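Q: Got one fold?
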Amino acid sequence: MTPPPARRRRAAGTPERSFPRRGSVRRAQMITTYGVGSIVAVDNESFMVSGTDSWNTTDAPTVYEHRLARVLGVKSFLLPPASDDTSKDGVRVRRFPLWHSCPECNALQHVSRFNSPPGKNECGECAEDLVPSRFVMACPRGHIEDFPYWKWAHRNNRQDGEAGLCGGELRMRTSGRTASLRSILISCTCGIPEVSMEGAFRRTALADLKVYCGGRRPWLGKAAVEDCAEKPRTLQRGSSVVWQPVVRTALSIPPWSDSHTTRLEPHWDTLRAMKDNPIGMEGFLKAIGAQENYTFSVDRVMSLLEAENHEDTAQDEDHGTDSAYVALRRQEYERLVAGRPEEGTDHRDTFVCEPPRTSATGLAPYGVTGPMLVKRLREVRALKAFSRVDMPETHTDVHEAPLSLQPMDWLPAMEVTGEGVFLRLDEERLDDWARSAAVAARADRIRSNHLRMLRERAKDPASVPDSPADARMVLLHTLSHALINEWSLDGGYPAASLRERLYTDETMAGLLVCTATSDSAGSLGGLVAQGEPDRLESALRSALLRAQWCSADPLCVESGGSGVGGINLAACHACVLLPETSCEHNNGLLDRAMLIGTPEDPSIGFFSEALRE
C-alpha cells in the first residue's frame, strides 16, 4: 500500500509534502485481510491502515451495486486504490504499535526514543532493526493501543499506588529455553525482579492491574478518545481477532444487471431527481445516449424507478427477523429460480442463468430439483466495518467499528465476476424428512449448542435472537460443502476458489456454488459444465458416498459436538470442512449425518434412500 501525497492547493514556493512508500497489497486484500484498522507487517515494520477519510480515491474506479448500496445507506462503492512505482495513488498508513524493542541492547520503549536515523527504523545506538511489539491491548468496541509493559513489569512493585513511576528504562529479552511466554522476560533498570509475559493473555490479566481501555482509535488519526467501560484484552499483534472484517455481499440481478441499467448507473441520482419531469429526462437520456452511441428508453427508466420504490417499500415493511439482507437473498433466490436466458443479452449484462438443455430426471431420486446453470454472475463485496476481540460469526451483538471519523457516502468494495451452479431441494420431501423425530433431535442439538455459545458471549443474553440452525439449513449447508469438496477433487477446482451462497428459510431451499476469486480459476465455463445433469448426478452420488466414511470415524460420526462451541456434529477437516473463505458460516452448523445418516439409523440422512438404489 502507498501513503498518498497531499492533494490540496499549496502556496507558491511551499514544497509538497510526500510520504514514503512502505509496501503494497492487492485490492481484494483491502476488503478481506488488510482493511481499515488492520495491522500490516511490512518487512521489519508494522503499520495500521488509516480510515477511508484519509484515502486518496481520485483515480479509484466506482463499483455500482444498486441494491446493496441502498441497504448500506451509501451512494456507491469504490475499489481500493491500487498503485505502481510511478503513481501517487494509495492508502495512508500509520505506524502501530509504537513500542519497539532492540534485539541487540534489549531496550524496550516508544519508537521515538530510539534516536533512529531519518527514514530508518533502527536503534540509534546499535544500528539494529527495531522489532515492533508482539503484544497489543484491544477491547470489543474496536479500541486498540500498545500493551502496558511498564505496569506489567512493575505490578508487584508499585510506587505511590501506581505502577510505572520509577523513572527507569525497560528491557526485553528471551531466555531461549522454550517458545512459550515464560521465556519472554521484562526487566527495568530500577532494579525490580525480572518478570515474564506468562499470564498476560488471561481474560482478567489487565483488569487485575487496574488497566482500563483508553478508548483510542489510531486508525482515525487524531480522533478524540472515547469513553469505554469494556475490559481490554491482551492480544498478539498478528492474531486473527485483532481485526475481523464485517463484509456485506450481493449478486447483481435483473433489472439492475442488464446493459441498459449498468450504462445508467453513473447518472442514477440525476435520473431519480427527474422522476416527475419526463420531458427533461428524455432530453437528458438523448444527451448521454449520443455520447455512448446507445439509445436509452424513458419507459424502461421509469419502470426501474418504480421497481426501486417497490423494493424500498418492501424493505420498510419487513419486521421481526426479516432483515434487509434477508430481503436481498429472497430477491436473488427468485431470480435464480426464474432464470434469465443468454439469448438477447450482450457482453455488459452481468446475469445469465439458464436451465440445462438435457433432462434432469436423473436427479429426482435425490430430491434435487430445478438445477440452473449460472453462466454469468457478478458479486459485490463491500467492507462495512470491522470488529476486534469478538467475531461476527460467534457474537450476535458484535460492535462494528467505523471506517472513518465522519460518515462517508461510499464504502470500499470489490467485485467478482464468474459463474456458478444453483440447486434446489424438493420442499415437500424436505418437510417430510425434517419432521422425523431423529432428524429434529439432531437439529435441536446443534441449535441448542449454538444458542448456548451466543448467550455465553453476549453482553445481554436475553437479546440473543434464535439460531438459524434448523434441519433444512444444516442439510443445505452440509450439501454445499460436500459438493465443493467433490468438485475440488474431480473437477480440478481448488476448494478456495469456490464459494457457497445459501438460501434457506421457510420459503427458500436452495444453494449456489460459484467462483469466489477474480483470477482464472473456475471462470472459463468449467463450473457450469459440472452443473449438467449427467455430471451433476455423478458428482452428487460420489460426494455422498465419500461422506459415508471419514478417516476420523467412528469419532467423527458419533460426535456429540465439535468445532467452536460444539455447533457441529459429524463434521471435521477430514470430511466436510472447507477453507473458511469458502464458507458463509465459518465452518459451523454442519452435520454429515443429515446427508447419509448414521450407522445405527441411516434414515436420518436425506439422501439415504437414493444411495441404496
Summary: The chain has 16 helices and 20 strands.
